[in-house]
Design goal:
Pfam families: ThiI, ThiI_fer, THUMP. It is found in: Cytoplasm. InterPro entries: Rossmann-like_a/b/a_fold, ThiI_AANH, ThiI_fer, ThiI_N, THUMP_dom, THUMP_ThiI, tRNA_STrfase, tRNA_sulfurtransferase_ThiI. Keywords: ATP-binding, Cytoplasm, Nucleotide-binding, RNA-binding, Thiamine biosynthesis, Transferase, tRNA-binding. Belongs to the ThiI family. The chain is an alpha/beta fold. Helices cover 36% and strands 20% of the residues. The protein contains 13 helices and 16 strands. The strands form 2 sheets. Strands 1, 2, 3, 4, 5, 6, 7, 8 and 9 form a 9-stranded mixed sheet that branches. The two termini are 38 Å apart.
Length: 403
Amino acid sequence: MIFKEILIRYGELSTKGRNKKDFISRLRDNVRYSFHDIAPLKIRAERDRMFIEIENQEKFDVLMERLPHVFGIQSFSPVASCEKDLDTMKALAVEILEDYRDRELVTFKVEVHRTDKMFPLNTHELQREMGATLLPQFPNFKVQVKNPEVALRIEVREDAIYMMAQVIRGAGGMPIGSNGKSLLMLSGGIDSPVAGYLMMKRGVRIDAIHFFSPPYTSDNALQKVKDLANELTKFGARVRLFVIPFTELQVAVKDAVPDNMSMTSTRRMMMKVADRVREEVGALGIVTGESLGQVASQTLESLTAINDVTSTPILRPLISADKNDIIKIAEKIGTYETSIQPYEDCCTIFTPSSPKTKPKLEKVQHFESFTEFDELIERAVKNREVYSFPQKEAKQDQFADLL
């Protein structure tokens, strides 16, 4: 195997100031977590880039497969090395570029960076030598100095020569955990996993909450949500899932509130429960997959009535998104096929035939005032189950701090 290390470029992290080292440290920890199964990894973090040493082909293959999912990485390149001998350098360059031999036309250039100023050839001389060797061997290459498809980068360092040509796009964004933690309301549909993904991309660590209403919802519906929570872990962080027994509360809303306002009231109860769990687990916000106007409960009037139950920031990354765009992201991140499995969640039961799209807050509060919901909320929060992913087994909540 010719590759000795992988060079990681930070992208957005490069714009940070005095706290830049904290973001880099977080990214390094996330990389270690994402590849715990092939540990140990030798990682060297510098101010503007990071290096992962490659020990064998197996580790290299795993790194190349998973690194594109780790937030905080703008791009990365496998790097080969050789001794400071010109003939050896030329042979290595040919080997690195073999993957491009069968393409019809490839724009190309050679970049040289000399840390070791004692190397006998200067930058321009080394560029000419390498170009004179490579162009006859790759007749499909055409020199283009600005924005070529392939740039063979040669770094002359103190210890050896390092070369790279492939630049692989990373996930971008910020390292997960660099912008606090929030609680994702995970329904099992298409939208909420996408909302969780987008918040993770901005550096937010996610725990998830799901409302389970047996016997109206099935174990298959719950398993679908577990699968979605597990799918989100591939982006570099563990996810805890809090499953709330919601049947009692949902039936109480159905009995107490007029049919056309029950959807709004149900969402308000969900938000109250989520806010209690959020406070206990130390999350700073609540994330939802709501998109303005998509359904009756997502009009401005409905969202205003729902927001009324809490002063906690409600983060809605999909609020202006088109449904087709949401579906494209779900397909890209691998949650779409799971989300469309035909198992109903609690949001689809007791659905009124003509829900209010512009509910009046004072009317909703009036009907809710005839039932003591606080006791039911307390019981639902207390009786929640906790699952940790990627681990599969259920955890007792008193051990949650150890996860």
